Fold:
Amino acid sequence: MTIYDVAKRAGVSIATVSKVINNTGNMRESTKQRVKKAMEELNYHPNVMASALMGKGTKTLGLLVPDISNPFFSEIAKVIEDRAHEKGYNVIICSTDENAEKEKKNVELLQSKLVDGFIVGSTYSDKSIVQNLTEAGVPVVMLTQDDPAIDVSQVFVDDFKGGYEATIHHLQNGHHRIAIISEQMALSSVKRTEGYLQALKTYGIRPSEEYLVKTRGTIANGIKAFDRLFRLPEPPTAIFACNDQLAIGVMLGAQEKGIKIPDQLSLVGFDDTILARATYPRLTTVAQPIAEMGKTVVDLLIDEIRLGHSKKERILYNPRLIIRETTDRAKVENI
Amino acid sequence: MTIYDVAKRAGVSIATVSKVINNTGNMRESTKQRVKKAMEELNYHPNVMASALMGKGTKTLGLLVPDISNPFFSEIAKVIEDRAHEKGYNVIICSTDENAEKEKKNVELLQSKLVDGFIVGSTYSDKSIVQNLTEAGVPVVMLTQDDPAIDVSQVFVDDFKGGYEATIHHLQNGHHRIAIISEQMALSSVKRTEGYLQALKTYGIRPSEEYLVKTRGTIANGIKAFDRLFRLPEPPTAIFACNDQLAIGVMLGAQEKGIKIPDQLSLVGFDDTILARATYPRLTTVAQPIAEMGKTVVDLLIDEIRLGHSKKERILYNPRLIIRETTDRAKVENI
DNA sequence: TTGTACGCGTTATCAG
DNA sequence: CTGATAACGCGTACAA
Structure:
């Protein structure tokens, strides 16, 4: 099933077949039809790898995410795929976890010829991956990460603001003992933590080291974080979880301990994944505009691929606090 | 950063470099060290594509799923990745949607040189994709699909039994008007429907065409299906949704209409994704052993890659009905 | 140790 | 208008 087979069947040379495929050069209509017929009969499809070898694009985008089982990433992956398909591109997803170097080097090197560009949504502390890629001239757009030090297009929400508003919401409800559970590996989480700190400051509250727990952003870790927080002599009355999974973990942990949300504990999440609407009570959370972000990041990347150079746009979206049922005016007794 | 660069820097030929990389042939220890040093200095990594071109494996697995935003698939994708990593393999995920032919042909052809094997979890009606792959000698294992007509290893749950037990559960609770919402594209859904029908039969209940809705397995479609079912002159008192997403959709739809679950409507899902534990009330659902299935499918595929041929095992897992809070002994008035 | 033909399936360039 | 053939990129493998 190569052009040789087609050529043989059509009784022409491979050059002619190639021309038919690429619609280049002129030839007798009858020849063209003969070739086309042969292609159909043999169910021939051009080998993408060989084209890639010749420097042609593969019409494929690479998407790097830290954890595909996190609904935020699987939802945005879906949006990205849909948009890419609309524009005639395929996407392959690599869930890089946080195995740092090795995995990712592998992944990206492996891809660098196979995909026309990358959407990097992973949460590296190590930025060399992106840097290597751009130096090698591979189009890259970063998603979810705001790092001014890296010279590529970026699409992200204002994490600081999101963290700030989540915390202010708790404060306005009368809470003072507000804990934060953040993702240790994520740049976005440090921004969200800064927002949290800033909000505390405007209310004149000294942050407590004990109320700041860093972990990986899974449900299991959310449960653990909750347990740790509630073994404190003075447990928090409100928690800001830096993603919805963590928040679900808190809810599950609280449920087990018989602690009522929002009566005894207020909770805000981040992302507004399907999880936030499926829980009971429904989760108050900071929404990221997943649909727009996914669409934008694809458009940006494809532009860059076509243009041949990066526009280095940094597109900042506004997070939006969605108040549902896990937060309520507090009935705080002490102070 | 090719072997040529390394060779130049080390002052040897590329042949020597190649030998060092592959640990073949003999050479002076000092030469070997010189080459190794050069490789490190240049941060050289063998180009996987070139090796692939030469017929070497890429230590990469391809995973095809119909919809990555479905937690069942994103959760199993995660398990598959973890297991693959343990064994030194990477995995790239393609969410093929149901765009049938075009997309998938593209995807798989694109991969056929790039990955050492495939895990196919998609829900084709068109089995030619898998067939082509196996004919081309590419290792393939099917996940989630039981199709005796296809001659490859398969890992799946007993969908018939799952559907049967879900329905029996409803029947035992006194329900007679039981609807089913199935995924139109999924082979597994037809099995589950058969189980549903069989259960009805053992209770001597004639299935009603109106209670059988087929749709795509998303939350949005779950809501729609619910709406349709509840506009019926005689709405069902129980629903079996063929996946958790559909079930969530039903819950959301019911909530909107003010219909109480389980008081006014009993609900069983399928998959036991995180969704089932996060909702309120928590979802009664038929669990698939996601962790084992993911692990098994990877082991099977890697075996096949190493062996060079398929063992054509068909591994059947038992589904397990997990009774939570969306089903309750019915308070059915009529009949 | 080294030189170098070879492999993959195209595309592209010239002759004919 | 069509065909022969040289790239393309990067290793592998075998003869020298």
Summary: Residues 3-46 of chain A form a domain with the 434 Repressor (Amino-terminal Domain) fold (CATH 1.10.260.40).
